């Protein structure tokens, strides 16, 4: 019986190797930290990549190390979309310390070698037991999402973002992130890099500015951003809710795994937009908000899964969000404090939306220790937070365009 079980396991593994895709990584220096999805490897002397990768979108990221393996450069990451039995090849560029593509002829030659199992002993297996977790973080990310958002060249790295953030550090948390970058031993390296265009995220206005309406009407539009959400959905996402959720997940993955400040700001903007709607979740977009709450639930659940912090190898890659980023002083607490009563205390709320709102509230209370008491309580806010409610004095018009960021 034991022998039969072993044979079955070997057969299953062989089938997975054949049907799964392979990421062949050539000449990656020892001690480099390399991750795919929520899994991280420390590169050893014979490491040549990862096999048995399930088909679909994945995020690959790495931190070059010094010769001793105790200091790491900033994270660089990129998305890939794999197909059954496909082989994707990247090669380490010694001078630039990054993974680059190779010629089509070379890729074909290496792919054939992989299919002949010539590299099999040098390939680490994708941990299939963690794939479900990755799907919860990336279920709305598609090939279209990646092609629409990824930067030119596909690389997402903080070393190209310092200029973007420093030009306009909007809030205290943004300023804190910039300071962390500036104080880093790699800040000089980042400053010397040629600034590149970042990801092509959609612009999400944080304030509605409109001509020829009263201050009271403008305040109402900013307190309930349902109309702004509808405009953005139709104009920027072609009415497809999945595209918006895909961008939300793309930004979070870029932030959490790729250490991208730009990703954090886009995730913050989208989360703030949806949590600032009052009519949409109850009437016009209940299904969207059920999906949205579910997405955020798994993002925060995995981001703060302290029991699994052992998955992070060394200090170069952080798979988990910093607790200080979600103290009661941060935007998320205020938004949730206002949103939860809206759903939980209303009548006739969609059952699934009610269920996932309760689950998210419970998670925040247990993981962060947040207490959502009477909404009349004074809420500690960052006075510079651009996502705070906008109150416009009566009859004060804002001479601006209909949509402004």
TrEMBL record:
Entry superkingdom: Eukaryota
Name the UniProt record assigns to this protein: Protein AAR2-like protein
Domain AAR2 C-terminal: 203-373
InterPro entries: AAR2, AAR2_C, AAR2_C_sf, Aar2_N, AAR2_N_sf
GO biological process: spliceosomal tri-snRNP complex assembly
CDD domains: Aar2_C, Aar2_N
Family: Belongs to the AAR2 family.
Residues annotated as domain AAR2 N-terminal: 20-151
Pfam families given in the database record: AAR2, AAR2_1st
């Amino acid at each position: 019986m034991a022998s039969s079980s072993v044979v079955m396991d070997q057969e299953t593994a062989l089938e997975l190797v054949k049907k799964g895709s392979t990421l062949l990584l050539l000449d990656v220096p020892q001690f480099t930290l390399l991750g795919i999805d929520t899994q991280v490897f420390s590169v050893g002397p014979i490491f040549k990549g990862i096999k048995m990768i399930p088909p679909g979108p994945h995020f690959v990221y790495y931190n070059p190390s010094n010769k001793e393996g105790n200091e790491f450069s900033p994270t660089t990451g990129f998305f890939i979309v794999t197909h059954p039995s496909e082989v994707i090849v990247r090669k380490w560029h010694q001078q630039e310390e990054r993974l680059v593509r190779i010629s089509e002829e070379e890729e074909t030659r290496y792919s054939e070698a992989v299919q002949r199992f010539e590299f099999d002993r040098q390939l680490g297996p994708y941990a299939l037991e963690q794939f479900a977790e990755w799907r919860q973080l990336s279920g709305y990310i598609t090939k279209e999402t990646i092609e629409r958002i990824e930067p030119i060249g596909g690389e997402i790295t903080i070393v190209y973002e310092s200029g973007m953030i420093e030009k306009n550090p909007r809030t205290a948390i943004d300023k804190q992130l910039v300071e962390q970058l500036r104080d880093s031993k790699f800040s000089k390296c980042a400053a010397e890099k040629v600034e590149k265009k970042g990801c092509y995220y959609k612009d999400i206005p944080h304030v509605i500015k409109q001509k020829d309406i009263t201050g009271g009407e403008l305040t109402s539009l900013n307190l309930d951003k349902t109309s702004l959400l509808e405009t953005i959905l139709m104009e920027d996402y072609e009415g497809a809710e999945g595209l918006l959720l895909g961008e939300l997940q793309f930004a979070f993955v870029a932030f959490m795994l790729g250490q991208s400040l730009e990703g954090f700001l886009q995730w913050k903007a989208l989360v703030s937009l949806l949590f600032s709607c009052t009519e949409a979740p109850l009437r016009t977009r209940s299904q969207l908000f059920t999906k949205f709450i579910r997405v955020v639930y798994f993002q925060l659940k995995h981001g703060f899964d302290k029991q699994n912090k052992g998955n992070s190898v060394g200090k170069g890659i952080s798979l988990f969000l910093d607790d200080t980023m979600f103290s009661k002083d941060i935007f998320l607490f205020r938004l949730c404090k206002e949103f939860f009563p809206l759903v939980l205390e209303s009548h006739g709320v969609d059952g699934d939306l009610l269920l996932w709102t309760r689950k998210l509230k419970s998670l925040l209370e247990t993981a962060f220790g947040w207490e959502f008491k009477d909404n009349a309580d004074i809420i500690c806010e960052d006075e510079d937070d651009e996502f705070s409610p906008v109150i416009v004095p009566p009859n004060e018009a804002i001479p601006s365009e209909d949509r402004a960021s």
